[in-house]
Amino acid sequence: MNTSHLRAEVERRYAALDLPAWPAPRPDGAPPANKEYSRVTDPQRYRIAGARARLWAEVLGEAGAAVEPDPVQSIPVGGAPERAEPVHRAVQVAPPAGVTGAAPWWLLESDVPQEDGGVLPLLRVAVGRPDLVHDSLPDCGCDACDGGSADLLEGVDDAIVRAVGAGVTLTGHHGLRRGEWQLRWYASGQAVGSDTPLGWTFDELVRACEQIAQGGRPALPRGTEVSVRATWFPGS
Fold this sequence. Notes:
Structural class: alpha+beta
Order of helices and strands: HHEEEEEEEHEEEHE
């Protein structure tokens, strides 16, 4: 079993669903108009992200994963509990039995109220713990940030492929500021970070993750929490 086969099966099942599809609004790469940044033409169309993720959970469940509803009702933003955001539907997807060192991931769905009374469906993919969010889809939801339905679905697929792959996550806090920094490194070589601790660069933290993945013990910022996970599908 490998993620390419799983992805193909998710695509096949998704094609049978009657869900919205729309083209990229600016295929020629033209910049969006200023008014598009404050406009959300059809927020409900973004429900396709959650639908795609649920299919991933279904297909992974058939491949041996343990899929269960999770009672989590909110997650902190930036590691600050007082800035919690609600979660309206949550599913935990745990790796198949016998896979050593792999981490579960969470499918977290929220209904975000809009100024016009509408609701924007938001999908978050968390890895290791429900508060360790790796991806939020859509990124924004405004017309300016819309890349079309195919781009959004690809983003969901990529997020879950990363979630079931090997990687290293570093998490820490900014002292009295209480804000959280996080760096996520994936076995593909991709790295994503939200802020960095004082005195450290992004590249230094990436190199530390690479060393950790190889079994090393590099110097890290004081108080750093390290999470190392193995792939769900070793040898694939």
